């Protein structure tokens, strides 16, 4: 088996459209997120090829723009190996090494690990009957400086919730402000208004920032609502939901 290796930019343009497809990748990342302790020089991430064929794997770190080409991204880490062949049924460890570039010491910094799986080039006979897809997996990498105040498990309790217009002016949103130094990853965000439940798309909230969760079209910001939310811990588990009452909608 061999691979037809397109130019990096052309490959990335194709792969970016496929990574969220319904088909399943053979190369899987062990774990759902990476915590990089600030007092560590490097961490390792394990990959496994659960498929029945070898795959060419490309890995890189990004800063949040999933569409940006790998060669244009600047991050304070070195990832090695960045490209390799992974045999069927075998594993490979990636080394994520921090460079000398400094990161904020008073809060977590958020990055993403990308793993791109390129299957072997099909034979002439197979290529006439099969569509080959490349798969991209992407998980969060949270750089956690040592000595941060508080505890990541308690950060979700500190979220401040309000209703306001969306930043783009289109409709209303539930907004969560995070005063803690930790990234809060939310796995569940629901609101109950007048006995009617609305499931909102969960997201993350960076330290010191505010994230918005758009309300369904046609739903105005209520004067009072019950918000149920659950956060995702360091091991990828959605913790039991917390409940808060949010009032005083801002109609600015």
TrEMBL record:
<protein>
    <submittedName>
        <fullName>Molecular chaperone</fullName>
    </submittedName>
</protein>
<keyword id="KW-0574">Periplasm</keyword>
<keyword id="KW-0143">Chaperone</keyword>
<feature type="domain" description="Pili assembly chaperone N-terminal">
    <location>
        <begin position="26"/>
        <end position="148"/>
    </location>
</feature>
<dbReference type="InterPro" id="IPR013783">
    <property type="entry name" value="Ig-like_fold"/>
</dbReference>
<dbReference type="GO" id="GO:0030288">
    <property type="term" value="C:outer membrane-bounded periplasmic space"/>
</dbReference>
<dbReference type="InterPro" id="IPR050643">
    <property type="entry name" value="Periplasmic_pilus_chap"/>
</dbReference>
<keyword id="KW-0732">Signal</keyword>
<dbReference type="InterPro" id="IPR008962">
    <property type="entry name" value="PapD-like_sf"/>
</dbReference>
<dbReference type="GO" id="GO:0071555">
    <property type="term" value="P:cell wall organization"/>
</dbReference>
<dbReference type="InterPro" id="IPR016148">
    <property type="entry name" value="Pili_assmbl_chaperone_C"/>
</dbReference>
<feature type="signal peptide">
    <location>
        <begin position="1"/>
        <end position="25"/>
    </location>
</feature>
<comment type="similarity">
    <text>Belongs to the periplasmic pilus chaperone family.</text>
</comment>
<feature type="domain" description="Pili assembly chaperone C-terminal">
    <location>
        <begin position="177"/>
        <end position="238"/>
    </location>
</feature>
<dbReference type="InterPro" id="IPR016147">
    <property type="entry name" value="Pili_assmbl_chaperone_N"/>
</dbReference>
<keyword id="KW-1029">Fimbrium biogenesis</keyword>
<dbReference type="Pfam" id="PF00345">
    <property type="entry name" value="PapD_N"/>
</dbReference>
<dbReference type="Pfam" id="PF02753">
    <property type="entry name" value="PapD_C"/>
</dbReference>
<dbReference type="InterPro" id="IPR036316">
    <property type="entry name" value="Pili_assmbl_chap_C_dom_sf"/>
</dbReference>
<dbReference type="InterPro" id="IPR001829">
    <property type="entry name" value="Pili_assmbl_chaperone_bac"/>
</dbReference>
